[in-house]
Automatic annotation (TrEMBL):
Residues of the NmrA-like domain: 2-261
InterPro entries: Ergot_Alk_Oxidoreductase, NAD(P)-bd_dom_sf, NmrA-like
Name listed for the protein in its UniProt record: NAD(P)H-binding protein
Lineage: Bacteria, Bacillati, Actinomycetota, Actinomycetes, Glycomycetales
Native source species: Glycomyces lechevalierae
C-alpha cells in the first residue's frame, strides 16, 4: 500500500489519478475530509505538524510519496518549515515499518543551497541516513508556474519577467514528475538513486512569453531583468531581504544556463517522452483558452 502525501498538490494530484488508472493500492494523505472526498479515492486525514496523525496514516503502508510545500517566503528566519514537515513524515514512516520513500526534491538540492535547494538538501540527507530505501526526484522549474498570470512574475504592464541573460530552461510538467513517481512506487527500479527530471526541451523566458500570448489571447512581452532589479522587486512585494536575494540569485542562475540541460530520466523511468511546453498548454485548455479559439 502506497501513501501519497501532498496529494492535492501540483504533482500529488497527477500521481493520485495515475495510480488510480494503474489500479495500484494507495491512499491519499489530506488535511480534511472534504479534500479527501473531492479526490474520490481512499484517504487518511493528517497534518505534517501532527506526528500522531502521520503514524495513524501509515497503517498498512509500505511505500510513501513525500511531497510538501516549497520554501516559504514569509518565514525568513530559521529553518524552513518544509524540513520539519518532511522529517515528521520520514520518522513516522520508519516507525511504521515502511520500506521505501520517493521524495519530491529539487534539481541542485544541497545543504547550504538557496531557498528550497537548501531545505531539500537537508531532508535528502536525513532520508538517506534513515535506513529506508529512497529515490530523489529532482525537477527543475515547473511548467505549472506559468498556469496563470498570478503564478508567474510579471511587471506592471503584464510582461513576463525573466533573467536578463535568458538562457533556455528545461521546465517540466508536474504530470511527468508524477509519472516518474508512479513508475518507481509500483516497480522495483531506482532504489537509492537520484533523478534530475526535465521536460524534453529547454525554452527561453522570451519564448514562453510568446507562447503565453497565444494561450491567454493578449500580448505578453518579455522583460529580462538583472539579479539586482529582481531582488529589489521581490523586496517591494514584501519578501525578506535574504529570501528576495536568494530567489533573484536563482533567476540569475536560470539565465546563465544552469538549468538548461535536458535529462532523459522521465523516459527511462516511464517509457514515454515527457510533455513539451506546447503539449502542457494543450493539456490545460482552461488555463490557455485562446489556444482553442486559435485552433478553430
Ligand atoms: N514550483 C517549482 O518550480 C518547483 C520546482 C522544483 C521542485 N519544487 C518542489 O515541489 C514541491 C511542491 O511544491 P508546490 O509549491 O508545487 O506545492 P504543492 O504540491 O502544490 O502543495 C503542497 C501539498 O502539501 C499539502 N500540505 C501543505 N501543508 C500541509 C500540512 N501541514 N499537512 C499536510 N499536508 C500539507 C498541501 O495540501 P492542502 O491542499 O491541504 O494545502 C498540498 O497537497 C516543493 O517541495 C517544492 O520545493 C517546486
Amino acid at each position: 500500500m502506497i501513501l501519497v502525501t501532498g496529494a492535492t498538490g501540483s504533482t500529488g494530484k497527477h500521481l493520485v489519478s495515475q495510480l488510480q488508472a494503474r489500479g495500484a493500492a494507495f491512499k491519499a494523505l489530506v488535511r480534511d475530509k472534504a479534500k479527501g472526498e473531492a479526490l474520490g479515492v481512499d484517504f487518511a486525514i493528517g497534518d505534517f505538524d501532527d506526528p500522531a496523525s502521520l503514524s495513524a496514516a501509515m497503517e498498512g503502508v509500505d511505500r510513501v510519496f513525500l511531497a510538501s510545500p516549497g520554501a516559504q517566503t514569509e518565514a525568513p528566519d530559521g529553518e524552513q518549515p518544509m524540513i520539519r514537515w518532511e522529517r515528521n513524515v520520514i520518522d513516522a514512516a520508519k516507525a511504521a515499518g515502511v520500506r521505501y520513500v520517493v521524495k519530491l526534491s529539487v534539481w541542485n538540492a544541497r545543504i547550504g543551497g538557496r531557498m528550497s535547494e537548501g531545505a531539500h538538501g537537508v531532508v535528502e540527507a536525513y532520508l538517506k541516513d534513515s535506513g529506508l530505501a529512497w529515490s530523489m526526484l529532482q525537477p527543475g522549474g515547473f511548467m505549472q508556474n506559468f498556469l496563470s498570470p498570478a503564478s508567474s512574475l510579471a511587471d506592471e504592464d503584464g510582461n513576463l519577467i525573466g533573467p536578463e541573460a535568458d538562457a533556455p530552461v528545461a521546465f517540466i510538467d508536474c504530470h511527468d514528475i508524477a509519472a516518474a513517481a508512479a513508475a518507481l512506487l509500483t516497480g522495483d527500479a531506482g532504489r537509492n538513486e537520484s533523478f534530475v527530471l526535465t521536460g524534453p526541451e529547454s525554452v527561453r523566458y522570451s519564448e514562453i512569453a510568446a507562447k503565453l500570448t497565444a494561450g491567454w489571447g493578449r500580448p505578453v512581452g518579455f522583460s529580462g531583468q538583472s539579479e539586482r532589479a529582481i531582488a529589489d522587486r521581490l523586496r517591494g512585494y514584501g519578501l525578506a531581504p535574504q529570501q528576495a536575494d536568494e530567489m533573484a540569485s536563482l533567476y540569475a542562475s536560470l539565465g546563465e544556463g544552469m538549468f538548461s540541460e535536458v535529462s532523459d530520466a522521465v523516459e527511462r523511468l516511464t517509457g514515454a517522452a515527457p510533455r513539451s511546453f506546447d503539449a502542457f498548454m494543450a493539456a490545460n485548455p482552461d488555463a490557455f483558452p485562446a489556444l482553442a479559439t486559435a485552433g478553430r
